[in-house]
């Protein structure tokens, strides 16, 4: 994960309040790339499975562009989860997706979904893309990162983050990538 981009976003105190753990989940290449042409620049089935297992039966917050990419691929929002779509638009959504017109509203909607649809799940996942990661970064408690050991071309990057504020809690090296968890120092 690249550490040399602007780290200001990670330094701002957060107004995003919830009793649940706010968990960023991302796959990021060594050069910071997370996306290209509205999609991910790699296909790693183990990572898709890892994402599914981590997020199943939880609220998952994402930006409108990422949401539309999932609709294009799956034909529906992520099954078994409530998708909270951050957008300024008035989108129609199926039953397991809701829209939020800003980040605070997204946390409120995710809290409601956790309580009413997911057995009071204790985590809310923040699943990108770049604009949504950037907005939530100061509020995240944990980062679940798939570090992709490659430097692909891309047009979307994970925002800079202040590594000194985070502790590596676990690392599972695989062939060409690693599953890593970082916990914010409080
Ligand atoms: N590698 C990974 O783990 C990963 C994860 C997720 C996404 N991605 C990639 O990231 C790329 C998409 O990222 P992106 O940054 O371009 O788009 P995005 O964050 O998915 O969506 C951006 C949109 O979200 C809405 N939005 C964001 N912040 C908002 C706010 N505070 N208030 C209201 N609306 C807000 C706006 O929608 P409106 O325009 O409708 O107002 C904005 O245009 C794709 O390539 C995708 O594949 C990669």
Automatic annotation (TrEMBL):
Set out the biological process GO terms recorded for this chain's protein: dihydrofolate metabolic process; folic acid metabolic process; one-carbon metabolic process; tetrahydrofolate biosynthetic process
Q: Which Pfam families match?
A: DHFR_1
Pathway field of the UniProt record reads: Cofactor biosynthesis; tetrahydrofolate biosynthesis; 5,6,7,8-tetrahydrofolate from 7,8-dihydrofolate: step 1/1
GO annotations of cellular component type: cytosol
DHFR domain: residues covered: 21-186
Keywords, in A-Z order: NADP, One-carbon metabolism, Oxidoreductase
Q: Per UniProt, what is one GO molecular function of this protein?
A: NADP binding
Q: According to the UniProt entry, what is the EC number of this protein?
A: 1.5.1.3
NADP as UniProt keyword: yes
User: InterPro entries, alphabetically?
Assistant: DHFR, DHFR-like_dom_sf, DHFR_CS, DHFR_dom
Which Gene3D superfamilies does the entry mention? Dihydrofolate Reductase, subunit A
Q: Which family does it belong to?
A: Belongs to the dihydrofolate reductase family.
The molecule here is called: dihydrofolate reductase
